[in-house]
Protein backbone atom coordinates (compact mmCIF):
# COMPACT_ATOMS: atom_id res chain seq x y z
CA UNK A 1 0.00 0.00 0.00
CA UNK A 2 1.13 3.57 -0.64
CA UNK A 3 0.81 6.25 2.04
CA UNK A 4 1.55 9.90 2.68
CA UNK A 5 2.77 10.41 6.24
CA UNK A 6 2.00 13.69 8.01
CA UNK A 7 3.64 14.46 11.35
CA UNK A 8 5.88 16.94 13.13
CA UNK A 9 7.14 16.32 16.72
CA UNK A 10 8.96 13.49 18.48
CA UNK A 11 5.71 11.62 19.16
CA UNK A 12 5.35 10.88 15.44
CA UNK A 13 8.89 9.54 14.94
CA UNK A 14 8.36 5.92 16.11
CA UNK A 15 5.34 5.64 13.80
CA UNK A 16 7.31 6.95 10.83
CA UNK A 17 10.19 4.57 11.52
CA UNK A 18 7.89 1.57 12.00
CA UNK A 19 5.99 2.26 8.78
CA UNK A 20 9.20 2.84 6.82
CA UNK A 21 10.52 -0.53 7.99
CA UNK A 22 7.43 -2.43 6.81
CA UNK A 23 7.93 -4.09 3.43
CA UNK A 24 4.21 -3.95 2.64
CA UNK A 25 4.04 -0.16 2.89
CA UNK A 26 5.51 2.46 0.56
CA UNK A 27 5.88 6.00 1.90
CA UNK A 28 5.34 8.26 -1.10
CA UNK A 29 6.07 11.45 0.85
CA UNK A 30 6.49 12.82 4.35
CA UNK A 31 4.69 16.08 5.09
CA UNK A 32 5.78 18.16 8.09
CA UNK A 33 5.58 21.70 9.41
CA UNK A 34 7.99 24.35 8.05
CA UNK A 35 11.42 24.80 9.62
CA UNK A 36 11.42 27.16 12.59
CA UNK A 37 13.90 29.58 14.13
CA UNK A 38 14.43 28.55 17.74
CA UNK A 39 16.64 29.28 20.74
CA UNK A 40 18.63 32.33 21.69
CA UNK A 41 20.52 32.34 18.41
CA UNK A 42 17.32 31.91 16.40
CA UNK A 43 18.89 29.08 14.44
CA UNK A 44 16.73 27.30 11.88
CA UNK A 45 15.73 23.87 13.16
CA UNK A 46 14.03 20.97 11.41
CA UNK A 47 11.10 19.15 12.98
CA UNK A 48 11.83 15.75 14.52
CA UNK A 49 9.89 14.13 11.67
CA UNK A 50 11.88 15.96 8.98
CA UNK A 51 15.17 14.89 10.58
CA UNK A 52 14.00 11.28 10.63
CA UNK A 53 12.64 11.38 7.08
CA UNK A 54 15.94 12.73 5.75
CA UNK A 55 17.84 10.01 7.63
CA UNK A 56 15.55 7.44 6.01
CA UNK A 57 16.04 9.12 2.60
CA UNK A 58 12.32 9.80 2.22
CA UNK A 59 10.96 12.73 0.20
CA UNK A 60 9.89 15.64 2.42
CA UNK A 61 7.24 18.27 1.71
CA UNK A 62 6.59 21.30 3.94
CA UNK A 63 3.87 23.93 4.01
CA UNK A 64 2.39 26.32 6.53
CA UNK A 65 -1.00 25.49 5.00
CA UNK A 66 -1.44 22.05 3.46
CA UNK A 67 -4.96 22.96 2.30
CA UNK A 68 -3.79 25.38 -0.41
CA UNK A 69 -4.76 24.32 -3.92
CA UNK A 70 -1.19 24.02 -5.22
CA UNK A 71 -0.17 21.84 -2.30
CA UNK A 72 -3.25 19.63 -2.64
CA UNK A 73 -2.29 19.02 -6.25
CA UNK A 74 1.15 17.82 -5.17
CA UNK A 75 -0.45 15.36 -2.77
CA UNK A 76 -3.04 14.23 -5.29
CA UNK A 77 -0.32 13.28 -7.75
CA UNK A 78 0.97 10.56 -5.42
CA UNK A 79 -2.34 8.63 -5.70
CA UNK A 80 -1.89 7.37 -2.14
CA UNK A 81 -4.06 4.70 -0.56
CA UNK A 82 -3.87 6.38 2.86
CA UNK A 83 -2.86 9.62 4.45
CA UNK A 84 -1.53 8.84 7.92
CA UNK A 85 -1.52 11.71 10.42
CA UNK A 86 0.36 11.63 13.73
CA UNK A 87 0.62 14.89 15.71
CA UNK A 88 0.91 16.97 12.55
CA UNK A 89 -0.34 20.31 13.87
CA UNK A 90 -2.62 21.57 11.10
CA UNK A 91 -6.32 21.02 10.51
CA UNK A 92 -7.06 19.20 7.25
CA UNK A 93 -9.74 20.48 4.89
CA UNK A 94 -12.53 18.22 3.66
CA UNK A 95 -10.93 18.28 0.19
CA UNK A 96 -7.67 16.98 1.62
CA UNK A 97 -9.49 14.33 3.67
CA UNK A 98 -11.02 12.99 0.47
CA UNK A 99 -7.69 12.70 -1.41
CA UNK A 100 -6.57 9.15 -0.52
CA UNK A 101 -8.16 6.11 -2.13
CA UNK A 102 -8.90 4.49 1.23
CA UNK A 103 -8.93 7.02 4.10
CA UNK A 104 -7.13 9.57 6.22
CA UNK A 105 -6.10 7.82 9.45
CA UNK A 106 -5.01 9.51 12.67
CA UNK A 107 -3.19 8.19 15.75
CA UNK A 108 -4.28 10.15 18.84
CA UNK A 109 -2.74 9.83 22.30
CA UNK A 110 -5.85 9.32 24.40
CA UNK A 111 -8.77 6.98 24.82
CA UNK A 112 -11.21 9.01 22.79
CA UNK A 113 -13.60 10.71 23.22
CA UNK A 114 -11.60 11.67 26.32
CA UNK A 115 -9.00 14.39 25.79
CA UNK A 116 -9.62 15.54 22.27
CA UNK A 117 -7.05 18.19 21.42
CA UNK A 118 -3.33 18.86 21.36
CA UNK A 119 -2.19 17.99 24.91
CA UNK A 120 -3.78 14.69 25.97
CA UNK A 121 -0.66 13.21 27.59
CA UNK A 122 -0.06 16.26 29.76
CA UNK A 123 -3.68 16.33 30.85
CA UNK A 124 -3.85 12.66 31.73
CA UNK A 125 -1.03 13.06 34.26
CA UNK A 126 -2.14 16.45 35.56
CA UNK A 127 -5.62 15.02 36.18
CA UNK A 128 -4.15 12.10 38.12
CA UNK A 129 -5.32 9.39 35.70
CA UNK A 130 -4.06 5.87 36.27
CA UNK A 131 -4.82 4.66 32.75
CA UNK A 132 -4.70 6.34 29.36
CA UNK A 133 -4.10 5.00 25.86
CA UNK A 134 -3.94 5.49 22.11
CA UNK A 135 -6.76 5.58 19.57
CA UNK A 136 -6.64 5.19 15.81
CA UNK A 137 -9.52 6.78 13.93
CA UNK A 138 -10.88 7.81 10.58
CA UNK A 139 -10.37 11.55 10.29
CA UNK A 140 -13.36 13.84 9.93
CA UNK A 141 -13.74 17.60 9.57
CA UNK A 142 -13.81 18.21 13.35
CA UNK A 143 -11.06 18.03 15.96
CA UNK A 144 -10.41 14.39 16.92
CA UNK A 145 -14.08 13.43 16.55
CA UNK A 146 -13.83 10.84 13.78
CA UNK A 147 -14.99 7.24 14.00
CA UNK A 148 -12.65 5.08 16.09
CA UNK A 149 -10.86 2.01 14.77
CA UNK A 150 -8.72 0.57 17.56
CA UNK A 151 -7.80 1.57 21.11
CA UNK A 152 -5.03 0.34 23.41
CA UNK A 153 -4.88 1.01 27.14
CA UNK A 154 -1.59 2.13 28.72
CA UNK A 155 -1.06 2.27 32.47
CA UNK A 156 0.30 5.44 34.01
CA UNK A 157 2.92 4.71 36.66
CA UNK A 158 2.83 6.61 39.93
CA UNK A 159 6.09 8.43 39.18
CA UNK A 160 5.63 8.90 35.41
CA UNK A 161 6.45 12.31 34.01
CA UNK A 162 4.84 13.46 30.80
CA UNK A 163 8.17 12.69 29.11
CA UNK A 164 8.17 9.09 30.36
CA UNK A 165 4.58 8.46 29.32
CA UNK A 166 5.01 10.24 25.98
CA UNK A 167 7.79 7.88 24.93
CA UNK A 168 5.90 4.70 25.89
CA UNK A 169 2.75 5.87 24.14
CA UNK A 170 4.63 6.84 20.99
CA UNK A 171 6.26 3.39 20.76
CA UNK A 172 3.06 1.47 21.42
CA UNK A 173 1.08 3.72 19.10
CA UNK A 174 3.35 2.88 16.20
CA UNK A 175 2.41 -0.80 16.46
CA UNK A 176 -1.29 0.07 16.71
CA UNK A 177 -1.01 2.18 13.58
CA UNK A 178 0.50 -0.67 11.56
CA UNK A 179 -2.28 -3.02 12.64
CA UNK A 180 -4.87 -0.40 11.76
CA UNK A 181 -3.57 0.13 8.22
CA UNK A 182 -3.29 -3.55 7.42
CA UNK A 183 -6.70 -4.41 8.85
CA UNK A 184 -8.41 -1.62 6.91
CA UNK A 185 -6.74 -2.85 3.73
CA UNK A 186 -7.89 -6.39 4.53
CA UNK A 187 -11.44 -5.23 5.26
CA UNK A 188 -11.39 -6.49 8.86
CA UNK A 189 -11.03 -3.22 10.80
CA UNK A 190 -13.94 -2.14 13.03
CA UNK A 191 -15.52 1.30 12.94
CA UNK A 192 -17.13 2.84 16.03
CA UNK A 193 -18.65 6.30 16.31
CA UNK A 194 -17.55 8.43 19.26
CA UNK A 195 -20.04 9.44 21.93
CA UNK A 196 -19.83 13.23 21.73
CA UNK A 197 -21.66 13.58 25.05
CA UNK A 198 -18.64 11.99 26.78
CA UNK A 199 -16.04 14.16 25.07
CA UNK A 200 -13.47 16.06 27.14
CA UNK A 201 -10.80 18.38 25.82
CA UNK A 202 -7.05 18.86 26.25
CA UNK A 203 -6.26 22.29 24.88
CA UNK A 204 -2.80 23.54 24.01
CA UNK A 205 -0.51 23.80 27.04
CA UNK A 206 0.69 27.27 28.01
CA UNK A 207 3.84 27.92 30.03
CA UNK A 208 1.78 29.63 32.72
CA UNK A 209 0.16 26.30 33.54
CA UNK A 210 3.38 25.31 35.30
CA UNK A 211 3.06 27.87 38.10
CA UNK A 212 2.41 26.02 41.36
CA UNK A 213 -0.53 27.11 43.47
CA UNK A 214 0.51 25.97 46.95
CA UNK A 215 -3.09 26.31 48.15
CA UNK A 216 -3.93 23.18 46.18
CA UNK A 217 -3.55 19.73 47.70
CA UNK A 218 -0.23 17.91 47.80
CA UNK A 219 -1.63 15.32 45.37
CA UNK A 220 -2.73 17.97 42.88
CA UNK A 221 0.65 19.70 42.99
CA UNK A 222 2.48 16.38 42.67
CA UNK A 223 0.50 15.55 39.53
CA UNK A 224 1.05 19.02 38.05
CA UNK A 225 4.83 18.80 38.44
CA UNK A 226 4.89 15.39 36.73
CA UNK A 227 2.48 16.57 34.05
CA UNK A 228 4.65 19.49 32.91
CA UNK A 229 8.04 17.73 33.11
CA UNK A 230 10.05 18.23 30.90
CA UNK A 231 7.89 20.87 29.20
CA UNK A 232 6.86 23.54 30.02
CA UNK A 233 8.16 22.86 33.55
CA UNK A 234 6.72 23.67 36.98
CA UNK A 235 7.86 26.76 38.84
CA UNK A 236 7.33 28.89 41.91
CA UNK A 237 8.87 32.01 43.45
CA UNK A 238 11.06 32.60 46.49
CA UNK A 239 11.79 36.19 47.54
CA UNK A 240 10.78 37.29 44.05
CA UNK A 241 13.14 34.86 42.27
CA UNK A 242 11.71 32.20 40.02
CA UNK A 243 12.63 28.61 40.86
CA UNK A 244 11.78 25.57 38.73
CA UNK A 245 10.51 22.49 40.56
CA UNK A 246 11.33 19.19 38.84
CA UNK A 247 10.58 16.45 41.33
CA UNK A 248 8.41 16.09 44.44
CA UNK A 249 7.27 13.45 46.87
CA UNK A 250 4.30 13.57 49.20
CA UNK A 251 5.46 13.52 52.83
CA UNK A 252 3.68 11.82 55.71
CA UNK A 253 4.66 14.67 58.02
CA UNK A 254 1.85 16.85 59.33
CA UNK A 255 1.83 20.61 59.77
CA UNK A 256 -0.65 23.41 60.36
CA UNK A 257 1.44 26.08 58.66
CA UNK A 258 0.06 28.33 55.92
CA UNK A 259 0.18 26.97 52.35
CA UNK A 260 3.54 27.58 50.67
CA UNK A 261 5.48 27.92 53.93
CA UNK A 262 8.74 25.98 54.15
CA UNK A 263 8.50 23.91 57.33
CA UNK A 264 11.87 22.18 57.10
CA UNK A 265 15.13 23.00 55.29
CA UNK A 266 17.86 20.84 56.81
CA UNK A 267 19.23 17.29 56.87
CA UNK A 268 18.93 17.19 53.06
CA UNK A 269 15.17 17.80 53.23
CA UNK A 270 12.97 20.62 51.97
CA UNK A 271 9.39 20.26 53.20
CA UNK A 272 6.64 22.63 52.15
CA UNK A 273 3.07 22.96 53.39
CA UNK A 274 0.38 22.72 50.72
CA UNK A 275 -3.33 23.39 51.01
CA UNK A 276 -3.72 19.79 52.10
CA UNK A 277 -0.65 17.79 53.10
CA UNK A 278 3.10 18.30 53.14
CA UNK A 279 5.36 18.11 50.08
CA UNK A 280 9.02 17.09 49.94
CA UNK A 281 10.88 18.96 47.20
CA UNK A 282 13.44 16.52 45.78
CA UNK A 283 14.84 18.37 42.74
CA UNK A 284 14.76 22.09 41.92
CA UNK A 285 16.52 24.65 39.74
CA UNK A 286 17.31 28.24 40.70
CA UNK A 287 17.23 30.85 37.92
CA UNK A 288 20.38 30.68 35.82
CA UNK A 289 21.62 27.50 37.49
CA UNK A 290 21.46 23.77 36.83
CA UNK A 291 19.04 21.28 38.35
CA UNK A 292 19.96 20.41 41.95
CA UNK A 293 18.92 17.80 44.45
CA UNK A 294 17.46 19.13 47.69
CA UNK A 295 20.73 18.37 49.51
CA UNK A 296 22.88 20.16 46.90
CA UNK A 297 20.56 23.15 46.94
CA UNK A 298 20.77 23.41 50.74
CA UNK A 299 24.57 23.27 50.54
CA UNK A 300 24.71 26.24 48.19
CA UNK A 301 21.71 28.43 48.98
CA UNK A 302 20.23 29.90 52.13
CA UNK A 303 16.80 28.49 52.90
CA UNK A 304 15.12 28.73 56.27
CA UNK A 305 11.91 27.38 57.77
CA UNK A 306 9.26 30.05 57.74
CA UNK A 307 10.15 31.35 54.28
CA UNK A 308 7.37 31.04 51.76
CA UNK A 309 7.10 29.85 48.17
CA UNK A 310 4.73 31.55 45.79
TrEMBL record:
Gene it is expressed from: fmt
Family listed: Belongs to the Fmt family.
Domain Formyl transferase N-terminal: 1-180
Cellular component terms (Gene Ontology): cytosol
UniProt KW keywords: Protein biosynthesis, Transferase
The name this protein goes by in its record: Methionyl-tRNA formyltransferase
Signal peptide feature range: none
Organism in which the protein naturally occurs: Halanaerobium polyolivorans
Domain Formyl transferase C-terminal residues, every copy: 204-301
Pfam annotation, one family: Formyl_trans_C
Positions annotated to bind (6S)-5,6,7,8-tetrahydrofolate: 110-113
Catalytic reaction equation(s): L-methionyl-tRNA(fMet) + (6R)-10-formyltetrahydrofolate = N-formyl-L-methionyl-tRNA(fMet) + (6S)-5,6,7,8-tetrahydrofolate + H(+)
Enzyme class per UniProt: transferase
